């Protein structure tokens, strides 16, 4: 019995040795690489609007109504963008913040012409009238602005097969808004505009971070009438509905509901700086409103862009933080 067990053990050992020897002699076949995952198709059917196009991959020229001079001028597209960047952002800011503003400005013009066809000033594609389009200040263009524009030459923001609506504002108060709550936007909410936390710089003016404005009752009554809510008097005022970012969507004046974004514009957007409100009260014949941030809160916060650029973020990083699931493409060299 003992002898038979020994024989079995010897046989098993020999089998194992033979298998190992065969494995050692066999040439190892190289591993086949894993199949590559195809990249997302980035093809966009987006082109320069026909009214300004001079050919594919060529910089367009714009007919710009210069409000300050009351005349239309032919201006190269990139030269116009430099004036917008210098008009909308301080020209000593970090270059990546200026570059983000340049991409946004270029995209704004494309969307403006694509959707509106041109300026309300007959014969012009766009104007320097801030009530119609973007601010513009050619006298503030410096080397920093020129470099930001040059480094982003031809770059625009697209979503699907159209140019994105590139709203922006000065200071978000720490959180951006949806288009409906910040602008009383009536069309379907653009999916790339979402509520995001914004690292607005501590270097921003204190009266943008937090502000208080005083109005007379008569000023508020007139503003209400301008929004289609005409009343003779009121005793109290309060925040009504709030949106996803915490901004007031409506304001209650006694029991009358008023659109907060519309009332802000009617009262003056430089006085009632935002709809991210903390407190409203009636004090005698005065109305006191306090809040945070400066602007409608939709899209890119400029003081947020400033802070991100200071932290080493690129223009594209900044844009992708404030506009979700978009693509940045180059329309001309």
């Amino acid at each position: 019995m003992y002898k038979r067990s020994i024989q079995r053990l010897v046989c098993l050992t020999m089998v194992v040795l033979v298998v190992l020897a065969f494995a050692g002699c066999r040439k190892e076949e190289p591993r086949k690489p894993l199949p590559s995952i195809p990249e997302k198709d980035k093809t966009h059917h987006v082109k320069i609007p026909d009214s300004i196009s001079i050919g594919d991959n060529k910089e367009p020229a714009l007919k710009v109504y210069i409000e300050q001079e009351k005349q239309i001028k032919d201006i190269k597209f990139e030269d116009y963008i430099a004036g917008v960047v210098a008009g909308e952002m301080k020209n000593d800011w970090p270059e990546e913040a200026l570059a983000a503003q340049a991409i946004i400005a270029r995209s704004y013009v494309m969307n403006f012409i694509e959707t509106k066809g041109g300026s309300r000033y007959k014969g012009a594609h766009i104007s320097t009238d801030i009530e119609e389009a973007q601010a513009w200040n050619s006298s503030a263009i410096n080397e920093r602005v020129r470099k930001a524009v040059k480094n982003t030459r031809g770059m625009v923001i697209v979503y699907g097969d159209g140019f994105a609506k590139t709203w922006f504002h000065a200071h978000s108060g720490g959180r951006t808004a949806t288009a409906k709550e910040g602008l009383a936007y009536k069309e379907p909410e653009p999916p790339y505009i979402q509520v995001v936390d914004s690292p607005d710089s501590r270097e921003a003016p204190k009266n943008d971070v937090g502000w208080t404005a005083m109005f007379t009752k008569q000023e508020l009554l007139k503003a209400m009438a301008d929004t289609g809510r005409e009343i003779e008097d009121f005793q109290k005022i309060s925040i009504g509905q709030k949106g996803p970012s915490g901004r007031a969507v409506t304001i209650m004046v006694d029991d009358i509901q008023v659109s907060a974004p519309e009332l802000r514009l009617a009262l003056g957007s430089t006085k009632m700086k935002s709809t991210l409100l903390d407190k409203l009260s009636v004090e005698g014949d005065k109305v006191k409103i306090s809040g945070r941030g400066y602007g409608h809160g939709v899209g890119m916060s400029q003081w947020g862009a400033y802070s991100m650029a200071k932290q080493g973020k690129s223009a594209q990083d900044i844009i992708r933080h404030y506009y979700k699931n978009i693509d940045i493409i180059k329309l001309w060299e």
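The two ends are 90 Å apart (CA to CA). Residues 2-25 form the longest helix (24 residues).
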